Protein 1
Amino acid sequence: MVRRRAPRLASIGREHQLDGHRLYQQEVAGWAQRRLAVNPSDPEALWNLALRATLQNRPEAAQRWFGVLQAQEPSRPWPAVYRAIVLLADGRPWQARTVLDTVPAAAANDRLVRGLRDLSGVLSGDLRRLATLPQSLPQAVAAARREISRKP
């Protein structure tokens, strides 16, 4: 048996498209669990498990892994952004809003964070955010598209 190296974040999208049986996900899980056994705070392993749970449509597990990353990296907005997106997709906008409220002030003005904060606010009943949502949401989508289209 030829052992392949576990896919990293950059290759998950490609593997997800090419591997119709999603066998790579088992490989990722095993690789990540071995890494966590050695270092329980290994960020690469945690990101892989969070993304795997997201791709498998397991929002509880995904938001839990993103929560661990958020606790480990409180100054970075990305774990909170991913966690909030998972919570929004799972129909829990009030929890997404709470998560986004913990994003550091320096990142709170980020277009993506602002748009998600307004969206989760409106969906959770804070109608005051309706005034800014028509501007902040398109800006958030544009920021996400720019980030996605950047080459690794």
Protein 2
Amino acid sequence: KDQAVFGFRPRWRVGGADYASVEEMAREFLKELRAVQPQGPYMLAGMCIGGIAAMEVARELMRQGEEIQLMLLVDTDRPGPEMLKVQKRLHVFRRLRHIREVLGTLAHAEKKQKVEMVRTLVRRKMGWEDNPEIVAQDEYYHAKVRYWRLLYAHCPSQIRARPRLRLIHNQEQRSRIPLRTVCRVGERVAEL
């Protein structure tokens, strides 16, 4: 209760431009962190794919000679090309389930509702939608997908110093993902 907690909000959450790299994202978060706490030791945490960003912030802080007192990762998958493939497959299955739900709703709708639903779907998919709320919702969704793809595709550099790390996984994640993962990008290899 006596520990202040600050969170980072990725650009896509507020309609901002995409990041070119995870390193760029980490530099931006680090600038915000240093505005609140200029010097360490630091305690960092990340949940889900935010843990990948938090690890990159930690790596940059340690590169600058700062101490990471604690690194907490909650339900964070290891990044890399294999995880990106897994996440893309999961995304396809989620989209197919969504399509099935939309078709089911359409099949049970009254004729007037069906016409309106089809009109709305066509407008959205063709980019003709002029309702600002729906346009914002679509842009938010697509920015979120680009964000998680960027993070999962990331292959972090090895960290020389070893921060105190706590990894908390739910049982489902723990059963499907090995603890040790090797990420290969070109000649760079990082054991995670």
